[in-house]
């Protein structure tokens, strides 16, 4: 049985971040899918197949985090090898 596309895309984003030198942790809640911890920063990552609504973006943008934290959205399009990455 094939895994759901959302979890497949989370794993794909996880591998990309790990290749860039981050350690990743899968999370659920508050709209984030991954926490990526690097040597000098960390990133909160939302993985999706579709663009987010303005309301969803505002919710993620208003999430409180430390100054060295980036908020990223990975949008996986069909048949693409890499996601569209947006920074909030």
Topology record:
Layout: H1 5-19, E1 23-26, E2 34-37, E3 42-48, H2 54-61, E4 69-75, E5 84-87
Parallel strand pairs: 3-4
Antiparallel strand pairs: 1-2, 2-3, 4-5
How would you explain this protein's 3D organization?
The chain is built from two helices and five strands. With 88 residues, the chain is α+β, with helices and mostly antiparallel strands. The protein has a single domain, classed as Trna Endonuclease, Chain: A, domain 1. It has a five-stranded mixed sheet with strand order 1-2-3-4-5, with helices on one face. The longest helix has 15 residues, at 5-19. The termini are far apart. The mean pLDDT is 91.
| Text of the CATH class | Alpha Beta
Shape designation: globular
Low-confidence stretches: none
Radius of gyration: 13 Å
Q: What series of H and E elements makes up the topology? A: HEEEHEE
Q: Which fold name fills CATH's third level, the topology?
A: Trna Endonuclease, Chain: A, domain 1
Number of strands: 5
Reported for the largest beta sheet, the result is:
5 strands, mixed
Describe this structure in a few short sentences:
This protein has 88 residues and is of the alpha+beta class.
Labels describing this entry:
five-stranded mixed sheet; 88 residues; Trna Endonuclease, Chain: A, domain 1; alpha+beta; 2 helices
């Amino acid at each position: 049985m094939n895994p759901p596309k959302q979890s497949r895309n989370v794993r794909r984003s996880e591998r990309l971040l790990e290749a860039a030198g981050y350690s990743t942790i899968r999370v659920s809640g508050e709209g984030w899918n991954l926490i990526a911890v690097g040597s000098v920063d960390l990133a909160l990552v939302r993985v999706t197949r579709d663009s987010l609504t303005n309301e969803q973006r505002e919710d993620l943008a208003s999430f409180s985090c430390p100054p060295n934290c980036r908020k990223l959205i990975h949008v996986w399009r069909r048949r693409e090898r890499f996601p569209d990455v947006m920074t909030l």
